[in-house]
Design the sequence.
């Protein structure tokens, strides 16, 4: 059996690799697991067959030999637990790598989503400048904490893990934001991860879908 | 060995059980594991010894026989994997329960935090009403999806799991919000969880800390 994941038929990020199927593709490439992709339109994501797999009507999902799973973090955890390469063998280090997976989606990504949503929904509002400054300040406190921890470490805790995969994927969302220029250590960390061959293969695969969607 | 967790010396929620140590206390009570608590002031949370355990300077942390862990979700996952009672034995059901843990912190909590932060930071701003309406609308779409999934299920997927523990803990944060009245199924779900003896023991333990902090 090879797993099947779902992805956008036409990614709103224009092939930049920010859609969350990219995180799962990357994990599968890291462990050397081939996979199939089922592409969904926005309409199909909100229809009953997909909602039965993901109640929030989002991609990616993961199907493998009867298992149907949603939530990017949970899918990557499942892949990491069933294959070598994304979690340390030693049990304490393994628990800490999982902590960084949760830290990425729970302690960093919400502040990045707030920044994205502010830019997306409020750019034309009279309060945009004032609110954006506050949102950026809150995010910067999180990034400062992360950068201080990373310091001169290559990865967050020992060898590259699913925790790094998740954290890098979250940070990529603000790569283009001006404030990210203030964190050269985090930018270098993202660049190290993107230099991994598994990342390059996953990026190419999702980009091919985008190019195909252009017809 | 019994684990030690950290908690607020003086919880800002005034004993309502919303601080995240409550989630870990609840998990430990569900599996019947006794534990110690080390209380921290806000100042101590931002000092080097605590930052070495949690780079973001937050509670709770978890220490057990050399393991030092942060992130509430990761701590609860660790407890759930080492004891019976919070994850199904069957492997697919186990993966799905972990998916609900991630869903709680990644697909629901960020929208609840945005609601809280809007009320906290922007109540006196001229744009408050307009922004709050938009924030509530985004949150309601997530709650509608969750309520539709829950339907007449007792718990999110089979027996009570760490996924329910996390989701209920997230929903408790908006129990007092007017919009929550539109979701009687979710309110009943939260009430079912709060009726569990393990929940009651954990709640009493954190409330005792609050009362003690009043001197």
Sequence:
């Amino acid at each position: 059996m090879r797993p099947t994941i779902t992805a956008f038929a036409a990614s709103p990020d224009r092939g930049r690799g920010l859609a969350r199927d990219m995180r799962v593709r990357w994990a599968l490439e890291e462990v050397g697991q081939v996979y199939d992709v089922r592409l969904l339109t926005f309409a199909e994501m909100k229809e009953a067959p997909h909602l039965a797999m993901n109640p929030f009507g989002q991609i990616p999902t993961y199907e493998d030999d009867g298992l149907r799973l949603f939530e990017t973090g949970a899918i990557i955890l499942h892949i990491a637990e069933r294959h070598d390469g994304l979690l340390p063998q030693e049990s304490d280090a393994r628990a800490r790598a999982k902590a960084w997976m949760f830290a990425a989606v729970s302690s960093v990504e919400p502040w990045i989503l707030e920044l994205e949503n502010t830019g997306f929904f409020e750019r034309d509002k009279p309060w945009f400048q004032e609110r954006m400054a506050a949102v950026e300040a809150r995010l910067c406190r999180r990034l400062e904490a992360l950068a201080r921890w990373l310091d001169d470490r290559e990865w967050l805790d020992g060898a590259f893990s699913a925790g790094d995969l998740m954290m890098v994927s979250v940070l990529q969302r603000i790569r283009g934001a001006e404030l990210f220029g203030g964190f050269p250590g985090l930018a270098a960390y993202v660049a190290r991860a993107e230099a991994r061959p598994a990342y390059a293969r996953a990026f190419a695969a999702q980009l091919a879908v985008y190019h195909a969607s252009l017809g």
In short: The CA atoms of residues 67 and 169 of chain A lie 25 Å apart.
